[in-house]
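[recover] target loaded
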């Protein structure tokens, strides 16, 4: 439940603080809260705790190093490390859900968390693709038709794609972006 709360806080607060002067700092603090609560959520055994710490620590460190020396490379490092940790979390949650003898509040929280983590996972993948190819996505409601998607735009696009709503205001243009969007839509459908 604590992990789910941390995720919801990140998702709800991020669009409000993104354009503020210290918005990136607040977003990093919320991301750090998600990382730490993710470690605590899956640390049921010593081995799981150790593995979670090995994956989360570099992601945590690279996120904060981005504030000290903000370069595109350091953000890409965080995104890759964050992807690895999120994949680990999603897998741990799915194993927990599938092994649960009956559905209770913990299983429901794990299911919701896994679904939201899938949205975060794909948003990191979109940010990586957009960082490599700034013209990978087209934003149809802007005067600049192709621009990189980052921050909350990536999360928004990811959640809209995961839920298969597809408003059409952000459109994948490159083949890699289209392939990721298609895979996410399939993932969202199969997860439900």
């Amino acid at each position: 439940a604590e992990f789910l709360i941390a995720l919801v806080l990140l998702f709800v607060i991020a669009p409000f603080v993104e354009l503020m002067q210290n918005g990136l700092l607040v977003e990093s603090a919320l991301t750090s809260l998600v990382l730490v609560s993710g470690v605590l959520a899956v640390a049921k055994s010593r081995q799981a705790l150790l593995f979670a710490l090995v994956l989360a620590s570099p992601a945590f460190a690279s996120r904060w190093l981005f504030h000290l020396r903000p370069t595109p490379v350091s953000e890409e490092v965080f995104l890759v490390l964050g992807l690895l940790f999120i994949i680990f979390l999603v897998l741990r949650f799915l194993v927990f859900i599938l092994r649960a003898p009956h559905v209770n509040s913990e299983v429901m929280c794990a299911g919701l968390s896994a679904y939201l983590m899938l949205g975060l996972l794909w948003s990191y993948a979109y940010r990586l693709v957009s960082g490599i190819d700034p013209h990978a996505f087209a934003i149809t409601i802007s005067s600049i038709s192709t621009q990189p998607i980052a921050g909350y735009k990536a999360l928004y696009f990811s959640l809209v794609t995961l839920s298969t709503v597809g408003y059409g205001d952000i459109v994948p243009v490159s083949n890699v972006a289209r392939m990721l969007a298609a895979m996410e839509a399939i993932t969202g459908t199969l997860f439900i």
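[recover] notes: The chain has a mean pLDDT of 89.
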